[in-house]
Amino acid sequence: MTYEQDVLYMAEMWKHELNKKPSMFERAAKRAQIGISNKIPERFHLVVTEAMKKMVSAVLTGSDYTTKLKEPLPASFQEREEKVKAAIKRYQTTASLEGAGTGAGGIFLGMADFPLFLSIKMKCLFQIALLYGLDLKKYEERIYLLHIFHLAFCRDDHKNSVLQNIKEWEENPKKEIDWRTFQQEYRDYLDLAKLLQLAPGVGAVVGAVVNYRLVEHLGETAMNVYRLRLLSSKREEKI
Fold it and tell me: Residue 185 in contact with residue 153, Cβ under 8 Å?
């Protein structure tokens, strides 16, 4: 089995896992999270909303995140993925240090972490796309990035519809996103972690670990989506 066949198989398995219904534990955790959300200061929710608006605007205009690669892309898919993995690791380290620093500062710096961390994640996503050879000057490719971001941080019971949007993207490459749902689900995804990060004494540790893991999760999602898109030989298998 070639490298490309191997990673495509892994991506198909990843997609299969996403399509599974949430477990009883996951559904119970979601119900608990609704109560947790009500305990987070309203000021934090306002910071989230404003940061999301600015992030979406920057992604669509390409003003804040677009960068150029320092060297030509490797010819082989395997070599490109090696560079992708290295880039994800770099952003994980950056995000972890940033989370530890803001987490140690209590509630106000904890809130400041949100827009900073959001920027780190989007820069990571842009870098991944460039390393896979995508042209981010195209508006539709930036929309595609937002679909990947949404898939990584949406509710379990909404993953199938987001996957379907991505699958249909090639037929309708300018397909927009439900921005209200996009914002709400991302905020809900982070509520528990960010609540702990605001807590005195443990904020620095939580901030470092959570930021590291979330960038890892985003990177894994992006890699599998691009594997399915770029390596699937049949159109109906593409995502």
Answer: yes
Rounded Cα distance between 234 and 99, Å, is: 42
Global model pTM greater than 0.85: no
* Structure-token pair, residue 42: 């309203």
Length of the chain: 239
46: Cβ–Cβ under 8 A, 6 or more apart, which residues?
none
Between the CA of residue 156 and those of 93, 122, 160, 163, what are the distances in Å?
27, 21, 8, 11
Exposure string over 104-115, b if 16+ CB within 10 A, otherwise e: bbeeebbbebbb
Please, is 160 exposed, middle or buried when counting C-beta atoms within 10 Å of its C-beta (0-12, 13-18, 19+)?
Answer: middle
199-211: b (≥16 Cβ within 10 Å) or e: eeeebbebbbbbb
Find tokens 């605001």 and name the residue.
198
Q: How wide is the angle at C-alpha 91 spanned by C-alphas 130 and 218, nearest 5°?
A: 70
Whether the per-residue pLDDT at 89 is higher than 70: the answer is yes
Residue the block writes with tokens 């991506």: 11
Give 141-177 pLDDT, tens digit per residue.
Answer: 998 999 999 999 887 778 888 888 888 887 777 767 7
Q: Which residues contact 83 (CB under 8 A, 6 or more apart)?
A: 74, 131
- Domain positions in the chain are 3-237
Rounded Cα–Cα distance for residues 68 and 74 (Å): 15
